[in-house]
Design brief:
Blueprint lengths: L9 H11 L2 H9 L5 E5 L2 E4 L4 E4 L13 H13 L10 H13 L6 E5 L2 H14 L4 E5 L8 H5 L4 H4 L9 E4 L4 H9 L4 E5 L15 H12 L2 E5 L23 E4 L11 E5 L1 H9 L12 H16 L2 H23 L4 E7 L2 E6 L2 H13 L2 E2 L1 E3 L2 E7 L7 H21 L5
Parallel strand pairs: 3-13, 5-6, 5-7, 7-8, 8-9
Antiparallel strand pairs: 1-2, 2-3, 4-10, 9-10, 11-12, 12-15, 14-15
Helix pairs in contact: 1-2, 3-11, 4-11, 8-9, 12-14, 13-14
Length: 420
């Protein structure tokens, strides 16, 4: 017979947050209304007091929404069968998941190294580059690749780096989208590892000029660089195509995958490499390992997530729904407060709303929460809030998001009139 422990009262949970987690996070949660999330399904998040939110947040994790049945069923079955591996015997689920992922990756990327998070995938790529003789790193200003020590070294923003100096040496940051600056950095020194996003998400949903990644591919060949494309946010259908760099004629040495790979159920990420780039890891399976990497419970989620993306036609839905949602938000901004909204931009289900002032972005986030719509800020651009709704969002939920934006823009227009 089993018993269920009662959930402590919310004031006790808040005290626990302050005492044993982060007091700053507790204060932030209170500012956002003091809600406690309890259950989720598709685009809906329910709180302990019975509120229902439309989830356009989650930093890109929920391309399939919450608790997608195909993913949760696969995970539950794996929990019952063999959730963690011995790390000594061969394990079938990781092999099947690796093949499933490789089959949807761009041609040439066939070697998969599973890890537990996106920042670990970045660490894997940096170590792989070093194992291939590229110790110098070139990243982009306002790029975001994680906050563990190596990943933080290529996340070129002082507010995150300063407390942890010294970081990795020999790191150069160049403006995103600037091919000439990248070429100058590669020319000025030994062969380097270049890490770049197809679209800067935390940078504020910033798109490079057309052909940028193809040019980086050319520079990689010319200067012997090692090219890492970070698709952790942009991959698996988020932009309305399988991979953000699909339109570009370039095959990276390593592609980073995460967020949506979890299916919104179990944390998992991966570095997917060409056989040539992966060769040092291929030769020595103990060169870069982690106890929980390729855990059966995690890779079961990854395999099921990819299958569900195909079954849901999530890539095409992302393109269609995202275009409609972006149009609605832009129209609403133009109607109510064009003096407050600098731009609404995006592709697929990655949409950025750039406000004229950082304070306005915060005001808009709070108004949206009041209307039961969740969005994220951009960590490297305080002017921009981001929407990353799931491809499973319903028409009614899309209408709710539109209505709440309309109301929020109207409120802000009254609070901050154009002639003020």
């Amino acid at each position: 017979m089993t018993s269920t422990q009662p959930v402590p009262a919310e004031h006790e949970l808040l005290d626990a947050y302050r005492s044993h987690l982060s007091s700053g996070r507790a204060s932030l949660g209170e500012m956002f209304g003091g809600f406690w999330e309890s259950t989720s399904h598709s685009a809906a998040v329910h709180t302990s007091d019975g509120q229902r939110f439309v989830n356009c947040a989650g930093y890109g994790v929920f391309i399939l929404g919450g608790t997608h049945p195909h993913v949760t069923e696969a995970v539950v079955a794996q929990v019952r069968a063999n959730p963690l591996a011995t790390r000594l015997l061969l394990e079938p689920v990781s092999a099947a998941a690796a093949k499933t992922l490789a089959d949807v990756c761009p041609p040439g990327l066939s070697k998969v190294h599973f890890v537990g998070s996106g920042t670990e995938a970045t660490e894997t790529a940096i170590k792989m580059a070093r194992a291939n003789g590229r110790r110098r790193l070139v990243t982009t200003v306002n790029g975001y690749h994680g906050k563990t020590l190596g990943a933080l070294s290529v996340t070129a923003r002082g507010v995150y780096q300063d407390s942890f100096q010294p970081l990795l040496p020999d790191v150069t940051a160049v403006p995103f989208g600037d091919v000439e600056a990248m070429e100058a950095a590669l020319r000025d020194g030994p062969p380097a590892c270049v890490i770049v996003e197809p679209v800067q998400g935390e940078g504020g949903v910033v798109f490079p000029p057309e052909g940028y990644l193809a040019e980086l591919g050319r520079l990689r060949t010319e200067y012997g660089a090692f090219l890492v494309v970070d698709e952790i946010l942009t991959g698996l259908g988020r932009l309305g195509r399988w991979w953000g760099h699909d339109p570009e004629a370039v095959t990276p040495d390593v592609m980073l995958v995460g967020k949506g790979l979890s299916g919104g159920v179990v944390p998992v990420a991966a570095a997917v490499a060409t056989p040539e780039a992966y060769a040092p890891f291929d030769k020595d399976p103990f060169l870069h390992t982690s106890t929980f990497s390729a855990a059966p419970i995690a890779v079961a989620a990854a395999k099921a997530a990819i299958e569900a993306i195909v079954m849901e036609d999530a890539v095409a839905k992302s393109a269609k729904i995202g275009a409609e949602l972006k149009r609605r938000i832009a129209d609403s901004a133009a109607l109510h407060c064009p003096h407050l909204v600098a731009e609404v931009r995006g592709e697929g289900l990655l949409i950025g709303v750039e406000m004229a002032d950082p304070g306005l972005a915060g005001e808009l986030v709070l108004e949206l929460i009041d209307g039961r719509v969740l969005v994220n800020h951009s960590m490297n651009n305080s002017h921009v809030l981001r929407l990353t709704p799931p491809a499973t969002i319903s028409a009614d939920e899309l209408d709710q998001v539109t209505t709440v934006f309309d109301s929020a823009f109207s409120v802000l227009a009254g609070r901050f009139p154009a002639n003020r």
